[in-house]
Amino acid sequence: MKSDDSETGYSRQTVETVFSGRTVELVTRLCPLTTLSVPQTSISLVQETPVREAVYVAGRYCKYSRELCQTPWVVNGVQKCSESVEELISAIILPAFKAPELKFLSSGREDVDVRCVGRGRPFALCILNARTASHPPRELRRLQEVINSSTPHISVAHLQIVDKESTSVLRYNTENKVKNYCALCLVRGDVIVTAEFLQPLQGCTPLVVMQQTPLRVLHRRPLLTRPRTLHAMSAERVNDKFFKVHVRTEAGMYVKELVHGDFGRTTPNLSLLLAYPVDIVALDVTVC
Question: Would you state the pLDDT for residue 141?
Answer without folding.
Answer: 97
